[in-house]
Amino acid sequence: MKIIHAKDYADMSRKAANIISAQVILKPDCVLGLATGTTPIGAYHQLIDWYKKGDVDFSQVKTYNLDEYRGLTHEDPQSYHYFMNKEFFSGINIDLANTHVPDGANPDAEAACKAYDKMVADAGYPDLQLLGIGRNGHIGFNEPADAFSKGTHCVDLTESTIEANSRLFEKEEDVPRQAYTMGVQTIMNARMILMVANGKNKAQAVHDMCFGPVAPSCPASILQLHANCVVVADDEALSLCEGQY
Ligand code: GLP
User: Fold this and answer.
1) Which residues have CB under 8 Å from 236's CB, separation 6+?
2) Within a 10 A sphere around the Cβ of 2, how many other Cβ atoms?
3) Which of 87, 103, 127, 143 is catalytic?
4) Neighbour order of strands in the sheet with 153-156
């Protein structure tokens, strides 16, 4: 695990965007695994800016997002599909047919997850997987559990995730209780992992991810076993890791 210290959110975002744009420049038809949440928004906006300046071209890139709320259609403004269009895809020259998010509107969880797993596998898995981290150490929607998950599956969100994500909804009751998420094994199949984290409320999770035991009680800790994982985190998120890297 390589830890890159960023001064603040803007610095973290630019560093992450630099790594993603290098991937796209080196392999224009690469597969990117993408994440939602507020953390990667700055990196997405930076990439839009560089695209507009002519520095990076997404015309051949394929993307696969980590997760989607169960029960939300693509058009729902709270869906991750909508989020990706708004924060990233609408600002770059990606072919929307090459962008993929699990189908939250399919009530048949097994079929929806199986189909998504096949799509990601057929694409050869991501060259680069961007990740954020939940305050409880979750990645995608892989919540703390007794075992690491494998493929895409349907999860019950924990109370802490529902509460954390409620800031993006009008009321806590509006937060869906379930989601479809790539499993930990699928995430680990990416050839490179880029984890971004900022803020004090991520400090414990970042510490446990980087220096805690590799255990499903902190799903992100498995990234210690990935051969090419880069963590870009700001001062506050790294505040409990001082002197350890
Ligand atoms: C959500 C997403 C995760 C994300 C996490 C942290 O639950 N499913 O992919 O990493 O929240 O979000 P944020 O970046 O807003 O703190």
Assistant:
1) 198, 199, 200, 202, 203
2) 9
3) 143
4) 67-69, 178-181, 153-156
pLDDT at 164: 87
Domain boundaries, the chain: 2-234
CATH code 3.20.20.140 for 2-234 = no
pLDDT at position 140: 96
Distance in angstroms (rounded) separating the CA atoms of residues 13 and 38: 11
Burial category of 11 from C-beta neighbours within 10 Å (exposed 0-12, middle 13-18, buried 19 and up): middle
Give the pairing of strands 99-100 and 128-131.
Answer: unpaired
* Catalytic residue chosen out of the listed positions 65, 103, 127, 138: 138
Q: 133 alpha carbon to ligand 1 midpoint, in Å?
A: 6
d(CA 18, CA 13): 9
- How many angstroms separate the CA atoms of 226 and 1, rounded? 7
pLDDT bin (cut points 50, 70, 90) of residue 68 is very high
